């Protein structure tokens, strides 16, 4: 039997406050809700789901994905716009990468318009709210099936 490689869903700083932080922007759904939706959307495929407020830990999680994952959904939050180290780690990942943002970052302040992660992501999804995560999982499955990077 072919064992399915997992997908990694990685979340950056402050997403542990989802549902309580700026609900007018991010809504009332929690990260626990998001994780449950992602696992359901993945079906039989294993999911590795993490959130960290640490840039170092997020990079370590990307390194683990490099060795283990079929694909990656990453919401790097503020590190999207600041971390060259995260960009360098993501460039080593050979599978498809979906950069995901709950809000439409392009409708927000100019500081949110330049993404380092976009320089290596296969695709970007933004503005769908927290309920967009399972859509990202399904899109990642298509990219994996098509062997896209």
UniProtKB/TrEMBL annotation:
The active site is at residues 26, 101. The keyword Lyase applies. It catalyses: 3-dehydroquinate = 3-dehydroshikimate + H2O. Its EC number is 4.2.1.10. GO terms for biological process: amino acid biosynthetic process; aromatic amino acid family biosynthetic process; chorismate biosynthetic process; quinate catabolic process. It holds the Pfam family DHquinase_II. It comes from the Bacteria. Belongs to the type-II 3-dehydroquinase family. Catalyzes a trans-dehydration via an enolate intermediate. HAMAP family: AroQ. This is 3-dehydroquinate dehydratase. The gene is aroQ.
